[in-house]
Amino acid sequence: MKIFFNTQNNLYCTKTEAKNPTFGIRIPELESAVDTFVSRTSSTKKEELKLIEMIKSFAEKIFQPKNFIGSGSQNEVYDMGKYVFRIPKSSESLKSETKKSINYSEKIIKNANPLNIDSYCGESLLQIGNVKILKNIGKHIPCGVPYALCSKMTNDEIYAYYFKVYFSKIAKLPQSSFDKFAEDVEKIKYPYTIDFQNPNNTVITKDKKIILTDDLLQYNKYCGANSTAKLLRIFMLDASLNVYTPVFHEHLNEARALFKKIILAGEKAGLTLSDGNEDKILISDALYKCQTKVKGEDFLMKISEINKSEKSKKIKMQKIKSYIDEIFK
Ligand SMILES: Nc1ncnc2c1ncn2[C@@H]1O[C@H](COP(=O)(O)OP(=O)(O)O)[C@@H](O)[C@H]1O
Ligand SMILES: [Mg+2]
Q1: What is the average pLDDT score of the chain?
Q2: Test site for ligand 1: of 213, 215, 241, most ligand atoms within 8 A of the Cβ
């Protein structure tokens, strides 16, 4: 089986690929022009137009395959050193169509209301028409299998990639990585929810941080609020957009340890465990894939019981830990 790895972007890869890494282009004058713009509180029309012209003149250099980092269902993201450029997907990626999908305005929108949440990096610093400039997260791997690779893969290849490249990394992350992420997700409140539909929206950085990219979703009654159940979905239930993970046979111990880390992180952060029926299904699914006979409803009831009966957070956490160990015996 051939797994395609893109060594020319900043996804961090397996040992063999790391020998010869290549990175996206750097255009120092554009980078410093963006720096200046981002740090400013106001700018004149003339200055705005100057930056827009500069971006237009470098567009061909930026939007080319060697700088491509990744894409979801909507956008393509290109490496430009300290920043990334996110543009709507064109029908024919990376060809002349890319240019056609770009629509530059004459105005630069600065991110007026940054959320200032460490684990959230989906906000554009600057937006010009439909071109968004964001902070570059740096080397990372997306959760699940990169969407751009999936169309070329069979389900078996997707699973092989999932376990080899992604799952081995996530399973080794320390509890503290999940704790920080859950704490930050808890801060993203109504009217926003995280976009948990595509696991690639969440990425793991080289320094073991979990970062959320992409736009936030507007809360709606179908998806419900942020919850630990949705973190289970991102980290272990979806192999890619619309591809579910299999039951964890070979990777059972890692999967159970991962399940435990996610639940403990959510409980520590005070994140809702389950918000609605969809979430209940996610919890049941995770328990089933981790091969326990405990049903989602019973699990939820037990955790809620522990939370109600104990005042001390420390004892609560110990009890939850022991309960999870017990169901995985
Ligand atoms: N700020 C960023 N820095 C570095 N890489 C990013 C950044 N934002 C997104 N990416 C990469 O691009 C991929 C797709 O980005 P995303 O914004 O989710 O696209 P879409 O809007 O189509 O879902 C991500 O999985 C990630 O690998
Ligand atoms: Mg996305």
Answers
A1: 88
A2: 213
Residue 2 within a domain: no
Q: 135, 170, 200 — which closes off a domain?
A: 135
Tell whether ligand 1 has an atom less than 6 A from the beta carbon of residue 84: yes
Q: Indicate if 130 and 150 belong to the same structural domain.
A: no
d(CA 125, CA 39): 10
Closest by alpha carbon to 251, among 153, 160, 137, 144? 160
Residue 121 Cβ < 6 Å to ligand 1: yes
Nearest-atom index, ligand 1, CA of 77: 12
- Top mean pLDDT of 38-52, 76-90, 108-122, 265-279 is at 265-279
- CB 75 less than 6 A from any atom of ligand 1: yes
The verdict on the CB of residue 72 being under 6 Å from ligand 1 is yes
Mutate to test the pocket of ligand 1, among 87, 203, 240 (most ligand atoms within 8 A of CB): 203
* For ligand 1, mutation pick of 214, 234, 242 (most atoms within 8 Å of CB): 214
Q: Which of 252, 28, 217 is nearest to 120 (CA)?
A: 217
Q: What is the length of the chain?
A: 329
- Give nearest CA residue, ligand 1 atom 9: 213
The pLDDT, as a whole number, for residue 190 is 84
Show the tokens assigned to 272: 């809702």
Q: What are the tokens at 250?
A: 């070979």
Per-residue pLDDT, 23: 55
CA 311 to ligand 1 centroid distance, Å:
41
Cα 286 from Cα 255, distance rounded (Å)? 9
Domain count, the chain: 2
pLDDT band at 189 (very low <50, low <70, confident <90, very high): confident
Query: With a threshold of 0.85, does the pTM exceed it?
Result: yes
Can you give the residue range of the structural domain that contains 35? 15-135
